[in-house]
Amino acid sequence: MDIIDRIALDLKLDKSYLARIASRSAFYYRDFKIKKRNGGERYLAQPSPELKTLQYWVLNNVLNKIPVSKAACAYKKGNSIKKHAQLHSKSRFVFHADICDFFPSVHSSHLNDVLRIHKNIFDDLDLDLESSILDIKKICFRKDALCIGAVSSPAISNIIMSSFDSALLDYCKAKNYIYSRYADDIYISSNTYIDKSIVDFLRLELERKGFKINYSKTRFYSPKYRRKITGIFLTEKSQISIGTERRTKIKKMVYDKLINKKGNPDEILGYLSFLKDIEPNTYNNLIIKYSKYCDEDIITALSRK
């Protein structure tokens, strides 16, 4: 039995219908762009509901059963950018690197050997291994590359990076460094100086996987500079912070909404939720301070369109 057979059986759908979707999966995406914080654009490809259903089946029945490294901090239940930043919060020195075009650089060949190692998953489902590998390629890859937007892409990215994460963990353990990876963002921190030879080691390990380091985003941070982990700042007191700039922006957004009746409620509440998670005391003080500007619950007032 192959995966298409099994999905049809489990979901009570017509096999020929599912096979057509899988064979023409490249046409079952909607392409669009979103603005990045640096002013650039990120290209997303959202699968259709039909293709997404197939991807969810593969995710739940195959991909989620494959273990990933403890160093992989993105796309895992219970993890967050806050917890990730806290891993490094007591370190004085931080090194950050980025992988060039990460998702589009992941191909089915990266995943195939891992799937073969975990043949037991397919045996338990009574599936033929090799035909299932071909079906997963059709369902989860578009023109043999991962899409930013496919529901199975995050899990696949963590799976194929497990061997890389293991190599980095071993390297960092020997040097008493802390290593973590958040999607394509690589962080290494320490209370001692981080030698620049880490760049060459990282480049070689990435090349083994067929990836490239993004030198334009490679940074060494010390206590003399503002240290950042996935957009969150590390303070001199080993705490985490959203930073002065964003804190000021949130205060202005709240003031403008309450006084001038301007602003997007969803955006404001999103920023407030972020502030509450990272700096709960700052959030409480802000709510108390600005409550005097309204005669009702401040969150209700900020939620009004």
For the largest beta-sheet, the strand count, sense and barrel status come to:
4 strands, antiparallel
Beta-strand residue percentage: 5-15%
Structural shape? globular
Helix and strand element order: HHEEHHEHHHHHHEEHEEEEHHHH
Number of strands: 9
Unreliable spans are none
Helices and strands in order, then pairings?
Layout: H1 3-11, H2 15-23, E1 29-35, E2 41-47, H3 49-61, H4 81-87, E3 93-98, H5 102-105, H6 108-117, H7 119-124, H8 129-140, H9 153-160, H10 162-174, E4 178-182, E5 185-190, H11 197-209, E6 219-221, E7 227-229, E8 232-234, E9 240-241, H12 244-259, H13 265-278, H14 280-290, H15 298-303
Antiparallel strand pairs: 1-2, 3-5, 3-6, 4-5, 7-8, 8-9
Structure keywords:
305 residues, alpha+beta, four-stranded antiparallel β-sheet, three-stranded antiparallel β-sheet, 9 strands
Walk me through this protein's architecture.
With 305 residues, the chain is an alpha+beta fold. The protein is built from 15 helices and 9 strands. It has a 4-stranded antiparallel sheet with strand order 4-5-3-6. It is globular, with a radius of gyration of 23 Å. The relative contact order is 0.13.
In a nutshell, what does this entry contain?
By secondary structure, the chain is an alpha+beta fold. Helix content is 50%, strand content 14%. It has 15 helices and nine strands.
